[in-house]
Amino acid sequence: MIENSNANMADLAYWGGNITFLVTSDGVLMVDAKFARAHDDVVSKIKSVTDKPIKYLVLTHNHGDHADGAQRFEDGGAQVIISADDRANMLRAANANWAPSFTYIGQARIFLGGKEVQLLQLRGDTRGGTVAYFPADRVISLGDLVTTAEAIPSIINYSDGGDWTDWESSMNRALALDWDTAIPGHGPAVTRQQVLQIRDKMVAIRERVRVMNREKKSLEEIQQTLVKEFNWGAGPAAGVIPGMLVELR
Ligand SMILES: [Zn+2]
C-alpha cells in the first residue's frame, strides 16, 4: 500500500488517494494511480521492492485523485482497466482527453504470476466503483467506497451516479468475501471489524437524513445535526447533503 504522509485534504489534493500494489513473479498489478505528479514517486517506491514491470493498473473509479496518473502508467506499458460505467464518467468530465482502452461490466478476474485478483463493480460512491479482492492475501481494496481518515469523510458522489442505498448493499457484498484487511481510498488500512463500524455509521447517517427530510427540516438544520451526532457533514461531505435529500425521501 502506498499512502500519503498525512491523511488530510491537503495531501489528498496534491498527491491523491491510496495505491495498492501486488508483486508477483510475472509482474506487478496496481490499484489506482494518484495524480500524474505522483508518478515518479510511485514508480520509485514500487522499484524499491521489485524490478518486475507494472503489468496491470486497475482504477477503482474515475476521480483524478485516483485516475489522473493512469495515462503515464499506460505509456509505461501497463494495461489500465476501469468499469464501463466509470469510464463513461471519466469521459463526461469537462476537459476529458483520455480514458482506459479496456473496461468490464459486473465482474472480472485477472491472473498474473500464479495470483488471482477479483474485480467487482459495486455502486456506491460512483456508479461503476471497482473493488479489488486478493483472496490469497485476504486483502480487499475498496477505493472510495470507504475512507478511514477523520479529515476525509466517506461520501456519495451523486454527479457520478453514486447512490447511498446501493452503497449499503455494495458494502455487504464486499463483506461477504473472505478477507481480514481492507485498504480504503484514503486513510490507513483497517480490519473487517472497523469496516463493519464504518458501514453501520454510514447507514445510520442515511436513516437520520431520511427522517429529518420527512420532517421537512432545513438543509442547515440537517447539516448541523449530522455534524453534532456523527461528526459527518462538514468539509467535503457538506456538498453531498442536497443530493441525499433527493434520494432519501
Ligand atoms: Zn478519492
Layout of helices and strands:
Blueprint: H1 9-15, E1 20-24, E2 27-31, H2 39-47, E3 54-58, H3 64-67, H4 70-75, E4 79-83, H5 84-92, E5 102-104, E6 107-112, E7 115-121, E8 130-134, E9 139-147, H6 164-175, E10 181-186, E11 190-191, H7 192-214, H8 219-230, H9 241-247
Parallel strand pairs: 2-3, 3-4, 4-5, 9-10
Antiparallel strand pairs: 1-2, 6-7, 7-8, 8-9, 10-11
Helix pairs in contact: 6-7
The chain binds zinc ion.
Describe what this molecule looks like in 3D.
The chain is α/β, with parallel strands linked by helices and 249 residues long. It has one domain (9-247): Metallo-beta-lactamase, Chain A, CATH 3.60.15. Helix content is 36%, strand content 23%. It contains nine helices and eleven strands. The protein has helices at residues 9-15, 39-47, 64-67, 70-75, 84-92, 164-175, 192-214, 219-230, 241-247, and strands at residues 20-24, 27-31, 54-58, 79-83, 102-104, 107-112, 115-121, 130-134, 139-147, 181-186, 190-191. The strands form two sheets. A six-stranded mixed beta sheet has the order 6-7-8-9-10-11, with helices on one face. Strands 1-2-3-4-5 form a five-stranded mixed beta sheet. Helix 6 (164-175) packs antiparallel against helix 7. The radius of gyration is 18 Å and the shape is globular. The protein starts with 8 loop residues before the first helix and ends with a helix. The model has no long low-confidence stretch (mean pLDDT 97). Bound molecules: zinc ion (ZN). Zinc ion (ZN) binds next to helix 3 and strand 10. Zinc ion binds next to helix 3 and strand 10.
